[in-house]
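Predicting holo structure, pyridoxal-5'-phosphate bound.
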Amino acid sequence: MSNLRNYYIELGVSPKVYDFCSEIEEGLADRFKEIDKITELNQVKVLKAMQECRFAEEHMNGTTGYGYNDAGRETLEDIYAKVFKTESALVRQQITCGTHALAIALGGNLRPGDEILSPCGKVYDTLEGVIGVRESKGSLVEYGITFKQVDLLPSGEFDYENIKKAINDNTKLIEIQRSKGYDVRPTLSVKKIGEVISFIKGIKPDVICMVDNCYGEFVEIIEPSEVGADMVVGSLIKNPGGGLAPIGGYICGTKDCIDNCAYRLTSPGLGKEVGASLGVTRNIAQGLFLAPTVTSAALKGAIFAANVYEKLGFKTVPNATEDRHDIIQAVEFGKPELIQAFCEGIQAAAPVDSFVTPVPWDMPGYDSQVIMAAGAFVSGASIELSADAPMKEPYAVYFQGGLTYHHAKFGIMMSLQKIVEKELITW
Ligand SMILES: *Cc1c(COP(=O)(O)O)cnc(C)c1O
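Done. Tokens:
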């Protein structure tokens, strides 16, 4: 073990930081064991789906051009449908990101006059543009679709009374965002999502319930599609891509909903029948195979970070002991120098671009400067260890990912190291 300590010291972690973090890690053994149980179940679930769909070597060859009869693409979609326990799935590299997947799910299933209802308040930033909450070209609002939201109660619970009042004849689709994203509310458990879906379907049975599943996949042993969601939607450069998918998005759901999505993604009349896989099926499938383990690494890293920084007196969301429903960890630092040092540490621990220094910049669409740390194999992949923070009160940093737990741990140790070196805390 002293060998390991020496390695870390050579990498720039001071003995004091190393010993402090090691002690915290020792206290997390039981917590990590609980996560391992979830991982094992999800691993077996994915493996079973691959075997039952008779996934084969030839499926990884890929097609070009139109991509008719791409058996690999079709089998991969069957595997996703089995894992998420849905009738159908659309899993494509032609879906460019999570926002695109969500835009397809919405645009494909809504018609002029329909209304979207969000029972968990504000939608994810980029979705505001998709829907037209924030004016943007080509938004759903321009096509005559309307939007309503009911905020969560201050306790973080659903406001059932006002949800009931908000449902009307035009309500066609419910948008439920599982992860808090970069908001302050709590992340929703799958159980809670199931409860609100039952409630809403009790009032209007034919409404489509869609869950933005980003960052939530494989964190629990069931997915929202198992508690009544008609569609679950996410990005392949987050949890389900396992770090190997170089691009893509997925939508799993009822056959009706997925067919509508496919007609929107490709073209009416063509739907799922086209879309060459270009040899990417191997990465997407292998990534799915690794996804439960990779997600658990990210979760353990988040728990480790919460425990390190809570012990140092900072507010962490979720806190050190809370149950987890997504992989995002927020730490409120209260000071710009602290988030800058934190991000420098995450960057310094990266396998790619470890030598660059992150600086705050004016990112399009944000009302303050943002600082980001990422040294990823897949550009922008937030299943890889990454951190970002808007340069404004309460100076909170959001950090997520880590393809391996040990890398996430090293990133957190380096973040603390930078903070200590700059004498930003006394301990
Ligand atoms: C990441 C994310 C999205 C989609 O974002 P992309 O950057 O377009 O992949 C949507 N909703 C939530 C909650 C997310 O975390």
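The CA atoms of residues 1 and 127 lie 48 Å apart.
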